[in-house]
Amino acid sequence: MIYGFRAVIYTEGGRALIEIPFNVWEETGRKGNIPCRVSILDLSFECKLIPKGNGKYFIPITKKTLSALAPEVEYEIGMEPMETLSRINHDSPYSKEHPIRKIDCIETIPIQAGFCGHCCVAMLAGVPLSDVVARMGKGHASWSKILEALDYYGISYASKAVYTKGGSGQLPLCCIVNNDNRFIVWYNGSFYGVKDVDSKKTISYIEVFAA
Predict the structure, then answer these.
(1) Is the pTM of this model over 0.85?
(2) Among residues 100, 128, 135, 149, which is most buried (max CB within 10 A)?
(3) Do residues 152 and 138 make contact, with C-beta atoms less than 8 angstroms apart?
(4) Per-residue pLDDT tens for 93-124?
């Protein structure tokens, strides 16, 4: 269903946002970071809505989109909730029921500067790094982009990240670790792609379910 409303773009703390003028929980029956397709004038983009509690949500506007629009001007907004973002996985031949492979081993791909997230996905999916870069694009990958790439390959993972507060603790069999703002694969007791990992600099991890 497409929801239509009029709203202005405003900036707050260096971010551009659109406040959704209704209770999203009540209207859509969904909660959390809801993927949506948004249209403004002749522009269309996908994003995850930003929750502020009690059904209040905001649409994040990128600098690229904002450059084609104007803040404090009221626009007609179209918003369509989606099951998942399609930027990466819209044409996937895989699914959670039929993933690209069973994760029972990891072939090391040395972590490259600026491509640590891509390397993690490539190791978990068992594909060349170049394939992942072609799908994810170049540049530093965020958690959301990494998870979208895992979705493309049908690789299942936990619904939430675990924040370790300065120590890796007991890691699961397989996970992606954010260590000192660098993504690393952990599998069966070992880190892959890097050496000399300082566990005290671990920030968080997301478990990947090895089949």
Answers:
(1) no
(2) 149
(3) no
(4) 888 888 999 999 999 999 888 899 999 999 99
